[in-house]
Amino acid sequence: MIVILKRDPDREQLESLIAWLQExxxxxxxxIGEQNTVLGLVGDTSALDVDLIAALxxxxxxxxxxxxxxxxxxxxxxxxxxxxxxxxxxxxxALTIMAGPCSVESEEQVVAIAxxxxxxxxxxxxxxxxxxxxxxxxxxxxxxxxxxxxxxARQETGLPIVTELMDLSQLPLFKDVDVIQIGARNxxxxxxxxxxxxxxxxxxxxxxxxxxxxxxxxxxxxxxxGGNENVILCERGIRTFEHYTRNTLDMAAIPVLRKLTHLPxxxxxxxxxxxxxxxxxxxxxAVAAGADGLLIEVHNDPAHALCDGPQSLRPxxxxxxxxxxxxxxxxxxxxxx
Length: 337
Hints:
Blueprint: E1 2-5, H1 11-23, E2 27-32, E3 37-42, H2 50-54, E4 59-63, E5 83-85, E6 88-90, E7 96-100, H3 107-120, E8 124-126, H4 144-157, E9 161-164, E10 179-182, H5 190-197, E11 203-206, H6 213-225, E12 231-235, H7 253-260, E13 265-267, H8 269-273, H9 276-289, E14 293-297, H10 315-336
Parallel strand pairs: 7-8, 7-14, 8-9, 9-10, 10-11, 11-12, 12-13, 13-14
Antiparallel strand pairs: 1-3, 1-4, 2-3, 5-6
Helix pairs in contact: 3-4, 3-10, 5-6, 9-10
């Protein structure tokens, strides 16, 4: 249930309403927007008298929310959420470009790539230290050593780091990571989602390869229900009957999520296609459709990459693309304004 308050509600009446709701075991999430203040009521609201609440002088309207996700629901939080990471942010009108190698292979490699992508306009460094692989014989990442190399790259460039958490046992190692990524295979690992929900750092949830929008948002709800509201959604392609590309990038997810949720939306065209030559056109399409950011794989030697080389851009190819994306974003902002 949501309670929409009138502008400048009487503070004494508001405090009285909140106290009454809390006595009934209701958890209240307050969202203050430009026009209205919204109270999102989480818990068993079936016994609450909607007419009684609506009759209060400070109340504009009361609505019951049918969707199972409450915290992630735009009805609860009409204003877009802005997730701040270091000196940058995700959402709020900015275009965030996260770039780097699929897998960290050495300190020299990740530092060199970090410097290159920063010079091109990227504001965050992505890189895998722990890698979930379909084959048990494929490179699984450098693990804790890879995390240390990412921290060196952050120190050298100032770029916040985004990297994937695969298992609860790894969580202590992620204390100094800026954004925790939950991969597509772990989107419904509910124990893992609960654990990162208790953290005080941003969490980026990649869409499961066969997940519906509601299932995806319910994964975000798990994190937010734990108290962590800094959640980012990442569309990385879904599995369909088409085999030409690695996955099928669901571009409709951007406007659909914009309607359903207030959370920032990132698009990963690299994993979505598995082909480097498709990254640029799909990245541009994502910006035009209103994405808050992009996750792009960049490698200095894709032909010899230990992981996902065919979908990685060389720094010299990423540079003009990043600049084009930033210009396109500015043009789209001007058209919308």
